[in-house]
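Open question from group meeting: does this chain pack into something compact, or does most of it stay loose? Before anyone orders reagents, we agreed to write out a predicted structure and look at it together. Recording both the input and the output here so the notebook holds the full record.
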Amino acid sequence: MLLIGTIQAQPTLYRLANFVLWESDEMNPYAGLTLGNDGNFYGTTSDGNNNVGTVFRVTTDGTLTTLATFNYTNGVNPLAGLTLGKDGNFYGTTFGYNSVSTVFQITTNGTLTTLVYFNGTNGASPYAGLTLGNDNNFYGTTEYGGNTGYGTIFQVTTNGTLTTLASFSGTNGAYPMAALALGNDGNFYGTTSEGGSYGDGTVFQITTNGILTTLTNFDGTNGTYSTAALALGSDGNLYGTTAFGGIGGFGTVFRITTNVGFTTLASFAGTNGAYPEAGLTLANDGSFYGTTFGGGYNNGSVFRFTTNGTLTSVVNFSGTNGSWPMSSLALGNDGNFYGTTEEGGASYNGENVGAGTVFKLVIPPIISSFSLSNQVPVASISGLARPSVQIQTTTNLLSSWLMLTNLDFTNGTNQFTDPDATNSPMRFYRVMVQ
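Structure tokens returned:
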């Protein structure tokens, strides 16, 4: 019996929604999306509502709704995404741009409450969003402010009590722009965009009681200017990106272990992406996906990265489907990725006047291996686990395809069996994503 499998289909990017330049309520999402308990996504724009910013909701079919607008008194210009709390509400920050910078709470029906006003001493201008700790408090960074003006690390409770845990001094890092990552050891890990021994930024660890330890100094060769949050891999290690540096200066992907082991795993080359300002998102198959601000057609790209250092360009942005993504991808309940681009999208009278997009990226799974068990084919499927995947089979490519029912989609690598194949001299299989 001959078993023949399909090759993996090309990933497909769909533009779900446009942020239009002339509309006053929605413009320029710097931040990515956050999945809510209702299956919808929530995010922020930095420049909507007369250039002060908004909070929005978007459904998986692209219906975009403005939930709240900022007005200076309750904050200005959110650059970071939202974080889902245990109470089902979202929490976020506004940068301020020399005005009011805050921590806020927003409900899914749009009730916005300011929890904290930064005053410089306790930090200023948080570029990054919040991270939920094991104690149900939130942890974050401010790009500026603190003892020396180089930024802070803070803890904030859901009722607005803010505690400054540490201030950066320059030598131990400066100007953190990335959110913190919670490690398996209960400590937080992050990066600074500048400072350290070489001025190119650092990787640090901080405990919940404020003990700050520099783990790595970037030096240009191993990367420089990290603005993205670290991502926890399935192996327990942390993975991140630098926007510049590495071979060619187009940025890097690196790994750091909690016992202070640092490894540069890949450098971007321009053709496979350039200048990643966003972090990595762990997929169900154990690999990471991310975005680059440049490269491709000079409008940015989406890439796939495996922990053995293989870096692959997945899709390039062209302007009409979005330009210059600055944020990480979000994994939806359907197994697809969702994200935003800062600019691009809609056109009017032949001119690109788009002020950003929301997109969906569908990455089909692949039948990766076959084996025979008592003459019954057993196949492994590498890719994203999702309920909308079908495995179909036929004995003749000119005949109709039949759907198999012996499927196991419980993990990122899944299996199916086909007992009927024992009676067939030849069998074809294909993966269908609905």
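Observations to bring back to the group:
Confidence is low (pLDDT under 50) at residues 1-7.
The first strand starts at residue 2 and ends at 4.
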